[in-house]
Amino acid sequence: MKNIRKTVLDNGLRLLSEKMPGAASVALGIWVDAGARDESPEENGLAHLIEHMVFKGTPGRDKTAIAREIDRQGGQANAFTSREQTCYHTRVRPEDLESALDLLVDIFQNSLYDEAELELEKRVIQQEIAMIEDEPEEMVHDLAAAGFWPGHHLGRPVAGTRLSVAALKREQILIWLDRQCPGPRLVISAAGAVEHQRLADLLSVRLKARPALAERLLEAPESRYGLTVRRRRLEQAHMVIRSDFPEIEDDRRQAAAVLSRILGDGFSSRLFQEIRERRGLAYSVYSSYSAFLKAGALEIYAATSPERAARTRDLVLAELKRLRREAPGAAELNEAVEGLITGLILGSETVENRMSRLAKNELLFGRAVSLAETCRRLKAVSREDLRELADQYWAEDRLAVCVLGPLSRKDFE
Length: 413
Fold this sequence. Notes:
The longest helix has 19 residues, at about 115-135. The chain is α+β, with helices and mostly antiparallel strands and about 425 residues long. About 45% of the residues lie in helices and about 20% in strands. Helix 10 packs antiparallel against helix 11 (about 310-325). Strands 1-2-6-3-5-4 form a 6-stranded mixed sheet, with helices on both faces. It has a 5-stranded mixed sheet with strand order 7-11-8-10-9, sandwiched between helices. The protein contains 16 helices and 11 strands.
């Protein structure tokens, strides 16, 4: 924590950096506290489209010049859109930081969003969506989210649909940028071989801040439970069982991560051992925990042959019932906690992960959260904490099951 510095620039932008002794590169990101969740139904896919379009030309650089400059630096430059944030990031040698910053700021605040390029990129994204639709594991997660949070921003796909993307207009992009990218919603973070004051000086004369037009309003979704079956000619039945789980601001989020680890996150997890190792019912089976503002979800995924799908589902439900009834043992709890802590420590060795952690903690909590604090919170999780979580969220009438494959609703019921 002693190497972390924060500066609020004169234009209101927040800059955070962490100097990492021995690092040979710098990771730099411009983070926007807005993502797919902030779209209206008519804007579905817009944040993701903007992420693509920033690389298609500015007044001083066409798309080929942008690509060549990225390659010439020999580093990495990219962007991603999540449900709640958008990030434009790069990783370069320290001596290339100024030129990389020039490029990153230019594409972020000066992109032209040319009409011809827009139509071309919409076709590219439609192909990206088609790729997702060709991957049953990807598609079933989107179907499960849509069924669990119907009509809500968090239930819609980040990339949009082919129809929603086709309908997007340049005017919507410009409105979005004014509404969703004001100074208070931006965080610039850097980690690695970085000098904080030099970066602050470079940013203060390059990156402008839009005024805030409106406060960000986030509504909690209403969950829908039950069974959803989408018939499709596939070799396997792909299944997601979903439940509510603690949101990001809930103090129980560490307990939620531990419980997911025990259930299905790792080779020694209960579901992996029972369904794959002992019974050979599935090659892929796992659980994952996603925490958002005002919402959270636990997803269990398994892919198996159609005739074994119901049996696989029953084994998952039995394990959920067992965890509601009986807290995990002390050894199992300790192994899960130590596994999570080890993952955090190993991940902290990369400049990209440190840069991301700085930005996310600032956006979510308004402060830097040390690894030591996170580890203390994980170690404080008790066996009874886990049983109470399971009992609260895993009653069978509070589960949503989504199946994609060659099954009818009657088959799966």
